[in-house]
Amino acid sequence: MLQQTKTAIAGAQILFVAFGAMVLVPLLTGLNPALALLGAGIGTLLFQLITKRKVPIFLGSSFAFIAPIIAAKAQWGTGATLFGLFAAGFMYFIFAALIRWRGLEAVHKLLPPIVIGPVIMVIGLSVAGSASSMAVGKSGDVQAVEYGTAVMLSAFTFGVTVLVTVFGSKMMKLIPILIGVASGYIAALCVDIVDFQAVLDAPWFAVPELTKPEVNWSAALFMLPVAIAPAIEHIGGIMAIGAVTGKDYTKDPGLDKTLIGDGLGVCAAGLLGGPPVTTYGEVTGAVMITKNSNPVIMTWAAIFAICMAFFGKFNAFLASIPLPVMGGVMLLLFGTIASLGLKTLIDARVDLMRPKNLVIVSSTLTIGLGGMAVKVGDVAFAGVGLCALVAMVLNAVLPDRE
Fold first, then answer.
1. pTM over 0.85
2. CA gyration radius for the chain?
3. Which is higher by pLDDT, 277 or 237?
4. Across the strands, what pairs with 205?
5. Who contacts 203 (Cβ-Cβ below 8 Å, separation ≥6)?
6. Phi, then psi, of 60 in degrees rounded to 5
């Protein structure tokens, strides 16, 4: 009994580490945070079912889908967007089949760093405008929070998050977003711009309202290529947790199994109405610090996430976080995502003096950030999906010359 209690407490700690990033995605995209918690919990349990609970991984909301969700909602609506997110899970199945058929080298050949790097940069930078608008208190074209107050709050939140990221302890560095948002929220309370009435009116127990997906193949084709980056991230995440625990999860249960498990989690989250899920580096860091790699811990974390989805007052509290506080975190977050794309190019020592590499990076960034769309009948390719497709085609057809 004592051992089970310790394991449950460790699971609650894992959820705490993943929590800030997990609920940030639905808050930024307008999806329901309760459904994000529900999707993460069910997605993690599905992952454990497929992998026979051998890998200490918790699946949380994926940042890679923030910009595509915002764009898809504006173009096709929430129901069609959720269908697109459901369809994105099939990209994981494609990678799993490719690895089972030809091995991991086939993925590296199809998606080398010169393709993945600029695509990740587009994912981060494509929503830079939204971050800046929220930081100055704007919701669309409306000044929702007084300009001076908004700038002060976003700057304070940004500053705290940066300080924790750079100077915090090992444990604090796992939750910089959570600490930054909490600090910003307290500052917002001090300047009296938090509407707490909705929290008081909310019930303690509330069943999350599910949003029904609407079949839309344009949204599906728009979202499918977006999953390339998190699928590659998944492979890196599995290798990273293997390095921490000293086990080779690429062989047992196998990358094909872990990809299928993650893909099922993405599909389930989309059907429920939450953002797609992915492996979390913060969780790997927590496993490394605590030296506790028992996969049962992740089962408890998933159960707690599902329980919290039904906690009405808590979800109302999340909805009360002021716009500039979220904007302050976003200023750092989206730039960090873009930096990871740049790091991918640097680590692989990509030579941009080679014409092929220069063409791929330049065209990918311009197409991805310029809002270009290509229509084939009623189906449109745009954003991350279009630039990823262009990068893969250019990489396949261009000769690699000095």
1. no
2. 21
3. 277
4. 311
5. 312, 313
6. -125, 175
